[in-house]
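Students often ask why we bother encoding 3D structure as a string. The short answer is that it lets us treat folding as translation between two languages. Here is a chain of 193 residues written in the first language.
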Amino acid sequence: MTSSIEAVTRDWEGLTIPTAGTYLLDAAHKRVGFVARHMMVSKVRGEFAEASATITVAEDPTQSSVTATIQAASINTAQADRDAHLRSPEFLDAEQFPTLEFRSTGVKSRDGSEFVLSGELTVKGVTRPVDLDVEFEGVGRSPFGQDIFGFSASTEIDREEFGLTWNVALETGGVLVGKKIKIEIEGEAVRQA
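And here it is in the second language, the structure alphabet:
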């Protein structure tokens, strides 16, 4: 693009944001991660290596929208046996339900660069409403002339509400895998021509 960075940004309520347009999640600059409690005493972190998203930035930023698709089989916790179990019918059933899907239903400005992105998350064929706490990280232009913006988002879900109910009771009390799963997303989005 030959336009200056000023031509692809605008001021909105004291925040420099991208102009309206369609942006795609940059596969090389993203992390779709999660954190789960293990044996009631520690945390296991993992991520989905394959995910895509389309972000439509509207003239009124609170009218913007997001759709995202995550490949269930791309789950990675750095432990092969655990990953195979998470892909199995006892958890994600990646063969029967190859994707997790998110579709936004609304955006609310909270404070400065913080927003709430409401939407519907579908896991294993079950759709539930979720609210993501989103932080707009900034807008810029890459050395390759691409107009980009960065963001991070997080939420917490109850996995059992999505039919992910497998567990083992522990002799000491509690369960092997916690019900609450924290979702952590970071990424860059690239403007499409």
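Translate back mentally: The CA atoms of residues 80 and 193 lie 40 Å apart. Keep this in mind for the problem set.
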